[in-house]
Amino acid sequence: MRCSVVNLGCKVNRVESDGFEGTLARMGFAPCAHGGADVVVVNTCTVTAVAEKKTRKAVRQALAANPGALVIVTGCASAQSPSVYTQMSDRVEVVPKWDMEARLEKLRLPGGPSAAAPCEAASFLAPGRARVGVKVQDGCANACTYCIVHQVRGPETSTDPAQVVRRAREAAALGAGEVVLAGINLGRYDFDGLGLDGLLARLLDAGLDCRIRLSSVEPDNLDAATVERIAAAEGRICRHLHLPLQSGSSKVLREMGRRYAAEDFLALVRSLRERMPSVSVSTDVIAGFPGETDADFEETMALCRECGFSKMHVFPYSEREGTPAAARGDQVPREARILRAEALRSLGDELRCADAASRRGTVEAAVVEDARWCTTESYHAVRTPAGARPGQLVDVAL
Predict the structure, then answer these.
(1) Is the entire prediction scored with pTM above 0.85?
(2) What is the DSSP code string of 240-260?
(3) Beta-carbon contacts of residue 152 (< 8 Å; ≥ 6 apart)
(4) What three-state secondary structure class fits 190?
(5) Could you report the per-residue pLDDT of 173-185, keeping only the tens digit for each?
C-alpha cells in the first residue's frame, strides 16, 4: 500500500504533514510522489483566497493522479468550507486536524505495527535531515481583520515542554543540526504558566546536540526575557527573529487589528540590535490593505528601509470572505496592490543584499542542508564546505 502527503501553507502545516507521513510510514505504507497512491492526505491552507484556490487545485490533481485512492482533506481550508471538497468526489473525506491520528490509525495494514507504537513527530525522519520543525503551539486569539486563521484553527493551545524536548532530542539523534519551533502564535506559548522563555530554557538545559530557531513571533509577544535568553545562548538559539510587520503605517496597523504601532515595531528592532548587534530580522508585509493610501504605503517602505530586514515576505492583500477587511468598501485596486507588492519585493531584495554584505568578513555557524547549500544562523544560504555532511553545524566565513 502506498501513500502521498501533499502540504500547502505555513511551517506549522509542514510539521503536521511530517507527522502524517510518519504515522503512515509506521503503519506500513510506502511513500510515493508521482501518482498511484492508495491514500493521499492533502493538508490545506486558507490564509488567502489564492491559497484556497491552490488547495482546490491540489485536491483535484490528487484525485486525477491517484485513481481509486482515498483522498483525505484536512487543515484550515477544509475546516472553513468542508462541502467544497466532499462535493468533488465520493473518494474525498474531510477530517479535522484533531481527528487525523485516529483516522489514520483506522487505515492500519494487517501485520503492521501495533496501535501502541509511539507517535513522535520526528520519528519518521531519515538520518541526516538538516532542519526539523517541532510544533509547540496552535491557535490564535488576535483576530486580525484580514485573517481567517483564528476562526479555523481554534483556541490557543501549547504542547507539554517534556514532549517538545523529546521530539527535539529525537530529531537531533537522527542527525538534524537545527530544530525550528513552530506555532500559529508562537509568542503566546503557555503551558501551565511556562512561557516561551521557559520552554527555551528547558531545551537549553536538555543539552541537545543541535541549535534552536524560532519560526515567527508576533512583535507584541516578544518579551524581554525571551530576548535575553536568545542573546545569552550565544548561538545555541539562532540570533534570527522573524517579526511580522504587515504595515509601516500606524493607521493601517490599527485598522488591521494589530496590537502595536509603527514606532513600537521600530523601537523593538532597535532594542534587539542594541542587545545583539549581529541579529537578523526578517518580516512579512501586506501590500494594498483596504484604505491604504500612497502616503501609508510610503510609510511602510520607509520603515522597512529603517529596519534593514534580512528578508521580506511580501503579499498583495487578498480578500478573505468572512473577514471584516473583505467587507470594506475602500478596497485598493488590484493593479495598485500588485505594483506596491513589486516595489516592496524590490526593496526586500536590496535589503537582503545589504544585510549579507554587512556580514562579510565574519564567521557564522551554518547547518548543512545538502552538498551544495547550508543555512547560516542569520538565515542566509551559503555554499557548503567540502566534505560537510547534511545536518552538520559548520563554521563558515562570510
Answers:
(1) yes
(2) EEE---B-S-HHHHHHHT-SS
(3) 46, 76, 77, 79, 80
(4) strand
(5) 989 999 999 999 9
